[in-house]
Amino acid sequence: LGSKACGGPQSYLVLYKKVTDVKKLTELVSQYNLSVQEENKKLGLISTCSVVPQPQVHCKDKTCQAKAGASFNPYIKSTK
């Protein structure tokens, strides 16, 4: 989710595919990412260029969460 000024995601979005409209969410995330990229460019922003690791995910009762201590924030990490 999002876009660092030097490229790559700002964070990951954790979701449960069986109860999420993945197609719609993907469209919205793409729009958001493009908006962030354009703002970064317009404002001349820079970032750390560090790699944001994918979080470990725990799912229970149709709810998924990043495990404690895991990063949370660009691309979509989905579970089956």
Question: Which features does this protein show?
Answer:
80 residues, 1 helix, two-stranded parallel ribbon, disordered C terminus, two-stranded antiparallel sheet, flat, alpha+beta, 28% helix
Describe it.
With 80 residues, the protein is an alpha+beta fold. The chain has one domain. It is 28% helix and 20% strand. The protein is built from 1 helix and 4 strands; from the N terminus they run βαβββ. It has one helix at residues 22-43; strands at 13-16, 57-60, 63-66, 76-79. The strands form 2 sheets. The protein has a two-stranded parallel sheet. A two-stranded antiparallel sheet has the order 2-3. The longest helix has 22 residues, at 22-43. The radius of gyration is 14 Å and the shape is flat. The relative contact order is 0.35. Mean pLDDT is 84; it is low at 72-80.
Quick structural overview:
With 80 residues, this protein is α+β, with helices and mostly antiparallel strands. 28% of the residues lie in helices and 20% in strands. The chain has one domain (13-79).
Low-confidence stretches: 72-80
Q: Report the sheet-strand fraction.
A: 15-25%
Structural class: alpha+beta
Number of strands: 4
Estimate nothing, just give the exact number of structural domains.
Answer: 1
Any idea what the shape is?
A: flat
Q: Main beta sheet: strand number and arrangement?
A: 2 strands, parallel
Quaternary state reads: single chain
Describe the strand arrangement of the main beta sheet, using strand numbers.
1-4
**In whole angstroms, how far apart are the ends?**
19 Å
String of helices and strands: EHEEE
Continuous helix count: 1
Overall average residue pLDDT: 84
Radius of gyration equals 14 Å
Tell me the helix content: 25-40%
